[in-house]
């Protein structure tokens, strides 16, 4: 494993009498998921780390969904990435959420669970939540303000649900649990890459998708969104998840990363996503501009 090799290398350096005993032997590896926001966030964390410490970073952005990133974190193939508290709670720890749970309550649950089971911990949230909203085209011919409204429509009309592959595989907050909780009766389902499903619902190929609340394509395609009126989904606050061994090997890292706590609003994340999705700018450039504009790093 990468960390085992790092430990041996560090010991060898110390035994050799290197005067720079606290110098990190390897860069910190930051992972990410294969969609817009998750291509930007690794660069926000990485550029901030390099600006506020002597540590170097490497990027494994777009590495995979949570089913890929969790074992990669456990095995030391990556050191950290940004996860969402609700995903950690339901999809990784397989824990139930309670209606009306606060962000802090969910954070404490996932922090304790990750430290006990995965050898990792959650640092302070970045400030925005990226939850789910069931979205549909305003030209669909029906109207719904809540998930319950939409469920009623699905029982009276033939609606097709379309979502990314992971939605059908997830336990706790996936398709099967959602349809059971609200008594949806979709006539069919389609599976897409998450980047394709917005175009699918806009074009009428499907009728309903599980959109991300910070995705700029909700506005770009003028989609209608609905409210989770039964609080089926927990809070999905974004926060860095870091291996405990990494925090020991890089002792300034926790304090540095917590300098980003509360610094990214939902509106700011939406704006950055739009620059990548709509204006076709590079994620690392968008991340750099944000850090400069917010006074978080110097030019």
UniProtKB/TrEMBL annotation:
Q: Which SUPFAM superfamilies match?
A: Periplasmic binding protein-like II
From which residue to which does the signal peptide run?
Answer: 1-24
- Keywords attached to this entry: Signal
Every copy of the ABC-type glycine betaine transport system substrate-binding domain together lies at 27-292
Q: Which GO terms describe its molecular function?
A: transmembrane transporter activity
Keyword Signal found: yes
Which superkingdom, per the lineage?
Bacteria
Signal: present as a keyword of the record? yes
Q: Which GO terms describe its cellular component?
A: ATP-binding cassette (ABC) transporter complex
Q: Under what name is this protein listed? A: Glycine/betaine ABC transporter substrate-binding protein
């Amino acid at each position: 494993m990468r960390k085992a090799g790092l430990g041996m290398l560090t010991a060898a350096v110390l035994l050799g009498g290197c005067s720079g005993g606290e110098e990190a032997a390897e860069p910190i590896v930051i992972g990410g998921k294969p969609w817009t926001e998750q291509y930007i966030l690794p660069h926000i964390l990485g550029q901030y780390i390099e600006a506020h410490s002597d540590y170097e970073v490497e990027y494994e952005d777009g590495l995979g969904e949570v089913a890929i990133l969790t074992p990669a974190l456990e095995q030391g193939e990556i050191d950290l990435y940004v996860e969402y508290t609700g995903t950690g709670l339901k999809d990784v720890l397989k824990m139930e959420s309670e209606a009306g749970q606060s962000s802090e309550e969910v954070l404490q649950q996932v922090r304790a669970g990750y430290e006990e089971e995965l050898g990792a911990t959650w640092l302070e949230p970045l400030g925005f939540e990226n939850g789910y909203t069931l979205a549909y085209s305003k030209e669909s011919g029906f109207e719904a303000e809540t998930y319950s409204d939409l469920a009623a429509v699905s029982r009276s009309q033939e609606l097709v649900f379309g979502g990314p592959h992971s939605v059908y595989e997830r336990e706790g907050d996936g398709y099967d649990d959602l349809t059971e909780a609200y008594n949806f009766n979709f006539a069919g389902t389609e599976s897409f890459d998450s980047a394709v499903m917005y175009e699918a619902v806009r074009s009428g190929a499907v009728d309903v998708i599980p959109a991300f609340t910070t995705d700029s394509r909700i506005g770009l395609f003028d989609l209608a969104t609905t409210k989770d009126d039964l609080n089926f989904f927990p809070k999905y606050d974004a926060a860095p998840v870091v291996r405990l061994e990494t925090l020991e090997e890089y002792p300034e890292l926790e304090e540095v990363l917590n300098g980003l706590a509360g610094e990214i609003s939902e509106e700011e994340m939406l704006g950055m996503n739009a620059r990548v999705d709509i204006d076709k700018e590079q994620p690392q450039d968008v991340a750099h501009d944000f850090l400069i504009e917010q006074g978080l790093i110097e030019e």
